[in-house]
Specification:
Blueprint (H helix, E strand, L loop, with lengths): L17 E6 L14 H9 L16 E3 L14 H17 L3 E6 L5 H8 L10 E6 L19 H7 L4 E4 L6 H9 L4 E4 L1 H6 L14 E7 L21 H14 L1 E8 L8 H19 L2
Parallel strand pairs: 1-2, 1-3, 3-8, 4-5, 4-7, 5-6, 7-8
Helix pairs in contact: 1-8, 2-3, 3-4, 7-8
């Protein structure tokens, strides 16, 4: 199985700052399909990346790809709980060993494995971590199409676990989700896409009481369709490439990013989206590494 960026920065797991965790779950997608192919497509596209990210060479800190122990590139069992338990273990192990876990989805449900790892009773980050979500959708439904593990429910599960949340780029949200945000203004912060785009917002100021540790969850549909056309539930009017990176820079200047995920890529015949996803992963590595 291939490593992210191949042999460019490959080092032993214990010597790598960054741990890539592919998680090709695709069980509850509700529109376009193909997210199961996302992680491998991102890793394949990463072979074409330059070492220099425009500011530094983040890969010099080491990158190790940790494949889940029950799957291979060609045959993954789409059992949500099995995936989540495996992701939780790998993320917990990486965090415990002072690495930066990077989960590649798969549908957005995979992020719950990381949330559970951070929230584990054995985790030093429990109760000390907030989640910043880039997404076109609220993902705050209690259930969707009979499932509480739907990709449309992943941030509701984070809310249930007690995480403070900051949403950026939302432009499709149900009345149920609007009510949850309205009734929990101290727990769910947000800058929706209309405001972010029309006001050219390139940084966010986190509330004073927002936790010191940050986990980023990035659904590629949070970007404008021109950046990521290959996603299962596209929405017009999203965030720009440099806008998202600038916002993440502003977060890193205020808090410590302990891990992140990139989810909901559904590769198509044109390779632009998977390369953009690989570049996004590497650029965020650079933002994280330069703030250490």
């Amino acid at each position: 199985m291939k490593q992210f960026m191949g042999s460019e920065f490959f080092s032993a797991s214990e010597d790598s700052l960054f741990h890539i965790i592919p998680a090709p779950l695709e069980e509850s997608v509700s529109y376009g399909k193909g997210t199961a192919n996302g992680p491998i497509a991102i890793i394949e596209a990463s072979q074409q990346l330059e070492k220099w990210d425009g500011f530094s060479v983040p890969g010099d800190r080491g990158i190790f790809t940790k494949y889940l122990n029950f799957m291979d590139e060609k045959n993954a069992n789409n059992d949500a709980e099995q995936f989540l338990k495996a992701i939780e273990k790998e993320v917990f192990d990486s965090l415990s060993e002072k690495h930066i876990p990077i989960v590649l989805g798969g549908e957005h449900t995979v992020s719950l494995g990381a949330f559970r790892a951070i929230n584990s009773d054995r985790s030093p980050y429990k109760g000390k971590t907030g989640i910043i979500q880039f997404d076109a959708h609220g993902d705050l439904r209690d259930e969707y199409r009979g499932s509480r593990l739907s990709h449309a429910c992943v941030m509701r599960r984070a809310f249930d676990l007690g995480f403070p949340i900051f949403q950026v780029g939302v432009r499709s949200i149900s009345l149920e989700e609007l009510d949850l945000r309205k009734n929990n203004i101290n727990k769910i912060n947000y800058i929706d896409a209309y405001q972010a785009v029309t006001e050219s917002i390139n940084k966010i100021n986190l509330p004073d009481d927002f936790p010191e540790n940050i986990y980023l969850t990035i659904d590629v549909d949070g970007f404008d369709i021109s950046v990521f056309p290959a996603t299962g539930t596209p929405e017009p009017g999203g965030l720009g490439w440099y806008q998202v990176l600038s916002i993440i820079e502003s977060v890193a200047a205020q808090r410590r990013i302990i891990g992140f995920d990139v989810v909901e890529l559904a590769p198509c015949a044109i390779h632009a989206s998977e390369f953009a996803a690989a570049r996004l992963v590497y650029n965020i590595m650079g933002i994280v590494e330069r703030k250490l």
